[in-house]
From TrEMBL:
The organism of origin for this protein: [Anoxybacillus] calidus
One Pfam family matching this protein: Acetyltransf_1
Name assigned to this protein: N-acetyltransferase domain-containing protein
Limits of the N-acetyltransferase domain: 129-279
Matching InterPro entries: Acyl_CoA_acyltransferase, GNAT_dom
C-alpha cells in the first residue's frame, strides 16, 4: 500500500527526507542539492513523500516550473506505479513534467498522461556520474582560475550559448543575471590558455560530502582541443582538495564526446535520468 504525503513546511520536509536522500548522495545530487540550498523566502511548488508499507520510498520536489524532481527510489511494481499516478493526479493534477531515474520517470509519466488524456515528450536522456578520484589530470597547457567581474562580458555570452545548447534557452538579460550570480558567488571557473579564455565550468548544489559540476561550456572555435577536459578535471580536483569526498555531474546521453571525456577524467555512471514533459 502506498501513502502520498504532501508537505507545506520546508523545514519539516527537510527533516523528514534529507536522511533518506543522503543514502545515495550522488544519485540524489539534484533533489538533495536543491533542497539543502533553498532560500528561506523561496516556496517550492510541490513537496511530497511516498511510503510503501510504512517505509519511505520516494521523495518528490518541484521548484522549477517545467518539471518535478523524483529522487532515487525503492523498487515499485507496475501496479504500484499506476497507484502512485492516480494519487498524484488527484493531489496535483497539473504536473508539467518529471525528471529522475529513467525507468520510473517514463512509466509514471505515461500513467499520468493517460489519466490526463495527454501525451508525453521526452526532452532529454541523461546520465548521472559520480567521481571519487581524478584519473586524468589537467594538462599543463593552461591554467584554471576563478572568474572575476572583468570576465562578465564573455561569461554572459557563454552562459547564453550554453543554455541554447542544452535546450533551455534564456533571454540575454537572464543569461547576464546568471553570469553575474555565478561570479559573485565565486562558483565559476575559467580555463585560460596563452591569455585566452577557452572554457568554463562551475560548481553548484553542495551537499554534505558531494558537490555538482555543471555549466561546462567551450565556444565552438575552441572545441576538440581538450580544453573542456582540462577545465573539468582541474575544477574537480580543486573541489576534492577543498574537502568534498565526491563530485557529480549530469550529461546528455546524445553527446557522446562529453560522456567519453568525463569517464576518462574518472567520472563513473551511477544512474540514467530522463526529463519528460506532459503535454
Amino acid at each position: 500500500m502506498l501513502e502520498l504525503i504532501r508537505y507545506i513546511d520546508v523545514l519539516s520536509f527537510k527533516q523528514d527526507v534529507i536522511p533518506f536522500l543522503e543514502q545515495y548522495e550522488g544519485e540524489n545530487n539534484l533533489p538533495l542539492g536543491v533542497l539543502m540550498n533553498i532560500k528561506e523566502e523561496e516556496e517550492p511548488i510541490y513537496m511530497a513523500t511516498v511510503s510503501k508499507n510504512g517505509v519511505l520510498s520516494l521523495v518528490l520536489l518541484q521548484t522549477h516550473p517545467r518539471q518535478m524532481i523524483l529522487s532515487k527510489s525503492l523498487p515499485f511494481t507496475s501496479e504500484e506505479v499506476k497507484e502512485l499516478a492516480g494519487k498524484l493526479y488527484i493531489d496535483y493534477p497539473n504536473i508539467p513534467g518529471l525528471i529522475g531515474e529513467s525507468k520510473l520517470v517514463k512509466s509514471l509519466a505515461n500513467e499520468i498522461a493517460r489519466l490526463k488524456n495527454r501525451e508525453i515528450h521526452i526532452h532529454m536522456e541523461q546520465r548521472v556520474y559520480v567521481l571519487r578520484e581524478v584519473k586524468k589530470k589537467a594538462s599543463d597547457r593552461g591554467t584554471l582560475r576563478l572568474a572575476e567581474s572583468r570576465d562578465l562580458p564573455i561569461v554572459e555570452r557563454w552562459a547564453y550559448c550554453f543554455c541554447e545548447d542544452v535546450g533551455e534557452p534564456v533571454s540575454a538579460l537572464e543569461a547576464a543575471q546568471k553570469a553575474k550570480d555565478m561570479i559573485e558567488k565565486e562558483r565559476l571557473y575559467l580555463w585560460e590558455n596563452d591569455g585566452r579564455l577557452v572554457s568554463m565550468a562551475c560548481w553548484l548544489r553542495p551537499t554534505k560530502t558531494n558537490v555538482t559540476v555543471g555549466f561546462v561550456y567551450t565556444p565552438p572555435e575552441e572545441r576538440k582541443k581538450g580544453y573542456a577536459s582540462d577545465c573539468v578535471s582541474a575544477l574537480t580536483q580543486h573541489l576534492l582538495d577543498s574537502g568534498y569526498q565526491t563530485t557529480s555531474l549530469y550529461t546528455d546521453l546524445a553527446n557522446l564526446t562529453s560522456n567519453k571525456i568525463y569517464m576518462e577524467i574518472g567520472y563513473e555512471p551511477v544512474m540514467d535520468s530522463t526529463v519528460v514533459f506532459i503535454k
